[in-house]
Amino acid sequence: MDSRGQPQPMATQNNCEEGDNICANDNMCKEVKASLAHSTVALVEEEPEEIDPWDLPELKDTGVPWSALDTKGKVWRVLVSVGKFILLLGFLYIFICSLDLLSSAFQLVGGKAAGDIFQDNSVLSNPLAGLVIGVLVTLLVQSSSTSSSIVVSMVSSGLLSVQLAVPIIMGTNIGTSVTNTLVAMTQAGDRSTFRRAFAGATVHDFFNWLSVLVLLPLEVASGYLYKITKLIIDSFQIESGEAPELLNVITDVLTESIIQ
């Protein structure tokens, strides 16, 4: 009873209930905090997958498939393909004509005197010297096909014999090893790409070097390459003084107009 004579059990009960609620909330907070503090769950970091540095990248075709093209796109693609094929044939024709021009130019400029100089040259008669000459020429022009074409033209014009040309051709194959190494160096920005590019260049280099180390001593000792090529030419049964009409029919139109 209070001073007015009214009972107070409800207030006391409410206060107890509020206190119980507060205590319950506090206990819940404590329990939550305890559950977080004493949690047995361990965070496991996933290890990153190992990346193979020699693995090739996945190549994806980013072009539009044929089925997705409209009529205009299909016609355009066909025309582009035909144009590329015609350009390929045109460049091949120009390359063959350039070989014929080189041969004719060596005949006109050199003549018999130049042929005697090359044939009687003591430097070219040394196989190692011919090998070094092939390497140097390829380094200068940065193209083994160009240097090989020059040597082939000199042989066809009579300035060089086949025996002297064999070491020079082998030297051109070694000289192109520098070119592929330079190309591999351009990929140095990406470590994985550079690793694969330099490995491919090294394989090519060792193949050329090992081929020369094996074949050049055999050629010097036995002349087997010259004998094999002679057997191949003799099998064509080409008579002396007869010029074989292989590609001259289509190249003479351009080469004769330039030379004359």
From TrEMBL:
Q: Which GO terms describe its molecular function?
A: sodium:phosphate symporter activity
Transmembrane segments annotated in the record for this chain = 82-103, 123-141, 150-170, 206-226
What the entry lists under InterPro entries is as follows:
Na/Pi_transpt
UniProt keywords, alphabetically: Cell membrane, Ion transport, Membrane, Sodium, Sodium transport, Transmembrane, Transmembrane helix, Transport
**Membrane-topology annotation of the record:** Multi-pass membrane protein
Q: Where in the cell is it found?
A: Apical cell membrane
Q: Which GO terms describe its cellular component?
A: apical plasma membrane; brush border; vesicle
**What family does this chain come from, according to its entry?**
Belongs to the SLC34A transporter family.
- This protein is called Sodium-dependent phosphate transport protein 2B-like
- What species does this protein belong to? Notothenia coriiceps
User: Could you read off the lineage of the organism from its UniProt record?
Assistant: Eukaryota, Metazoa, Chordata, Craniata, Vertebrata
The encoding gene is: LOC104959921
